[in-house]
Amino acid sequence: MKKMPPVLLHGGDYNPDQWLDHPDILAKDVELMKEANINCVSMGIFAWSALEPEEGHYTFDWLDERINTLYKNGIYTFLATPSAARPAWLDEAYPEAMRVAADGTRNRHGNRHNSCLSSPAYREKVRQIDTQLAKRYGSHPGVILWHISNEFSGECFCPLCVERFRGWLKDRYGSIDKLNHAWWTSFWSHTYTSFDQIEPPYTNGERSVEGLILDWRRFTTWNTTEYLQMEVDTLKQYAPDVPVTTNFHATDSLDYAKLAEPIDVISWDSYPFWHKPDETLPYTAAVTSLMHSRMRGYKAGQSFLLMESAPALVNWQPYNKIRRPGMHRLASLQAVACGSDSVCYFQIRKARGSAEQFHGAVIDHLGTNETRIFREVKELGADLQKLSCLQGSRIHSKAAMLADRQNSWALDLCQGFSRNRNYQETLDRHFDAFTTATGCDLDVISFGEDLSPYSLLILPMCYTLSEEEAQRIREFTEKGDTVFATYALAYVDETLLAHLGGLPGGGLKDVFGIWNEEVDSLYPGETNHTFYQGQEYTIRDFCEVLHLQGAESLCSYEEDYYAGNPVLTKNSFGKGSAWYLAARTDDAFLRKVYSELAAAAGLPVQALPDTVEKHVRTDDSHRYTFYLNFSTESVTVDVPEGTDLLSGNPCGPSAVLPAYGAICIKEDL
Ligand code: GAL
């Protein structure tokens, strides 16, 4: 497999196919990209019409010219397959390529990210154009990565997808009786007598059997992954040496842990809402950092690529606030600090018309280097060159938070608790509290992940848990590590059937030394309280009523009929310990507990000022420590002694980070 060049990549989506009748602009693009220290582009993402204007008639000359010219100028290409949007001729000839919506109606031609991924005609047309691309460009030295399609998402309810869903269910359950049991269909008399009776969750159809909806989402992920595998195989047949990626984004509709399997490199598109009036900047930063860490987790031990980000602003948020001066640099360095080997944008040149004409770009309609954004991109490019030695270095975290997509779906489908289950927000708050209180990186992982690198495992609202996963948690604790779980642990198994025999289910009662009898949901605005080590903390939303069965209670409820019952418990199990948090507490409580837990688990704790993030990448001989200040005020922070790669100056034992400032300290190991 071709290795990535030994630099950090800097570039973005580039659509020369929109400008083929403007050779002057195409020439200027190269000049400006070089000036902006850009060394890669993603090309061809939505270029199907330009590459195959009529069925079977291919026009590659323009792409040949672009790839060659860019390469001669030191700019690599991530070459896309154009399958994310279909030309009009294709939909006219093969209407079955158009997706069917959840109400059963077939889309008309238009938009993007809306193909029926089961359609044999669509698959065949994609296979044909991918074959052409792979044969023509697979050995071009400028082509360093295949960028498959774009941001897979969504589902199709066409008859073919329904048929495939039934086949997938047959493989999964083997018999209709087993399916009926798993979905508990005897409830409301919904028992099936044949797989042919099963329909997906149409908007006017079966929406009360949660197991069905969960399996439909799993099937959609399987179908998308199978489709992705088809594109991967087609490219690899003719270009086996070029690695492949597909760009993930912040969607909940697919389980990326599965889509990660056929690809070589994880990449993703990050569009945080910076400068929100109702959120602090450090919190937005933490939420973004969680997403980077989640991407890192999809291929443990590898770096990832930031495939898209907005150099200035987007055009699709309700209010498209522009990044303040300096924010672009800080947000980009954050991605690198979290393990990305690239900073790429949507888009290099701003489109003249259509949906994205006012989306931020490196090159504005003005077409020069005279904009603030261009200058900031150029400066960032220079910074990335100073950080080139980081390429290939890794984050080695000792702590992980389980944040599985299927658990998210299960909680979303659960008709219990209260509406404010807010799983993602819960993850965000735990991630923020942990990283601020400890200064340690936190991996974000899915079910089935290898737990051996970790000494601390965090399980916020891990509502669905199979017997196998529960067993892995048991073994993790038993051999001497620390596990910390919150309310809602292991209520149901992987089919959403309630665990019998008391909670937490899956045989975890003895690991945590507790029995969870019931859960009280509070109305918005209602609170309970707890005192922990002399300090009072607020509780909202959820209060479980626990019984101790071996664990010690570290603090308890102050009010209501469960006053005196434990809020936080700790149990010794095997050589390790298992902590349980029965209620949704404020962030200050989480920070307190995480600083203790991390220290107990032997992590290198450094309490940070509220606005500062710290991340550590290492390679065989160096450690690179980033400190990033998400604030408009300067701040002083303790740092290791070494050289700041960004300023070139010696650094330590403390450093002043200016507003939006960043340092990256290199130390020999
Ligand atoms: C991404 C997409 C790009 C572009 C961008 C705008 O989700 O992949 O093609 O539309 O959003 O922010």
| CATH architecture descriptor of the domain at 399-600 | 3-Layer(aba) Sandwich
How much is the average pLDDT?
97
Globular, elongated, flat, extended or rod-shaped: what is the shape? globular
Name of the CATH first level of the domain at 399-600: Alpha Beta
User: Which structural class is indicated by helix and strand composition?
Assistant: alpha/beta
Strand order of the largest sheet: 11-10-12-13-19-18-17
Strand content: 15-25%
The CATH topology of the domain at 399-600: Rossmann fold
Major sheet attributes: 7 strands, mixed
Bound molecules: beta-D-galactopyranose
Structural summary, described in words:
With 669 residues, the chain is α/β, with parallel strands linked by helices. Among the domains are: 399-600, Rossmann fold; 612-668, Golgi alpha-mannosidase II (Immunoglobulin-like, Sandwich). The strands form six sheets. The protein has a seven-stranded mixed sheet. Strands 5-4-3-2-1-9 form a six-stranded parallel sheet. It has a five-stranded antiparallel sheet with strand order 21-22-27-24-25, with helices on one face. It is globular, with a radius of gyration of 26 Å. The two termini are 29 Å apart. The structure holds beta-D-galactopyranose.
